[in-house]
Amino acid sequence: MDTKNSGFNSKLIHAGSFEEETGSAVTPIYQTSTFKFKNADQGARRFAGEEDGYIYTRLGNPNMDELENALAELENGYKAVVTSSGMAAVNNVYLAFLSAGDHMVGHNSLYGPSRSIMEKMYPRFGVESTFVNCENIENIEKAIQPNTKLLYLETPANPTIGIIDIKAASEIAHKHNILVCVDNTFCSPYLQKPLDLGADIVLHSMTKFINGHADIVGGAVIAKTKDLYDQLSYVMKNVGFNMDPHQAWLTRRGLKTLAIRIDRAQENAKKIAVFLENHPKIEWVLYPGLKSHPQHDLVNKQMNGPGSMMSFEVKGGLEAGKKVMDNVKLALLAVSLGGIETLIQHPASMTHSKLSKEEKEEAGITDGLVRLSVGIEDAEDIIADLDHALSKA
Ligand code: LCS
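Output (structure tokens, whole complex):
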């Protein structure tokens, strides 16, 4: 079905749907590593790119294609590549657009490994980087060097929930011929469309909201143009970042309920943020939907809703925060985010533990910061759970 002119929810259900001979309403799982050719000439034509069709699953598979086409439509991009994990997607971008002698500017608060591989691994291949607080647009301009090729942003950022002005950042980068990649994991295209705001590439850990059920690990990169897609696709196919067909099938299924999951989690999050902000044991709460969020106006300008991720600090710092994490019963003490279940974790010792003390301090990842990914349970139950845990702090 052609969903190019359909609404977002119709796209969620039908975009990319694969025409299949049996008429199966749901695309079957093409659990195969390879595809038969009718004859030797057809095999040769497919390898030469003269005939459409599948060859070998590392190079493409109907389940990958279906998900890639749906994501491209949802993000208003040209086409996507889907990968075995979010980190495969991050590496796919770095490898596609950075070569020895190049430089990248990144936001200082990113998912830990997205920053640490750039600082610890990519220098081995001659790639340099500078991480600055991109919430202040002037810092981006100052960090740009003659060899800067990529601006890498995450907004809202993990775990500081800082917001970056994608439009303003893209304008600066494009003035210097620099590509802009936005990790849109915390929002999904339902709440934010970076390509419409000026970015060139969008990235997702689909482990989070896109799949939404905490049962797969996966990633995606969506390109604005054919040229960018071709470069991403070359890396995906030849480095072997591809997604498994079953993983792609589960993710396409999870994606169908993205909007209703986010609507509900967001309604819960709004109530929980207000509860936490008014709780006597809470030092501060950072949630894009609170007026107290320092970039509340920018949230309203570039996001369609505040989402369901928040960070907070318990009075008494890390020790008090640990008491809360050790005493929740309904919320799971676990990393990851964006699923239907509420998760709580401690970035300084868990997701961002590989950053140095100075890097954490500079990025605003304090020892007392606790991150909450609000699920779709009943808000009253989540609040009662947190209230009980806070009483132990
Ligand atoms: N980008 C963001 C914003 C993320 O939060 C993560 C994972 C990734 C990329 C990497 O994706 P993965 O390979 O795990 O699919 N974030 C995690 C987190 O905050 N807790 O556990 C994983």
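The chain has two domains: 8-30+61-255, 258-391.
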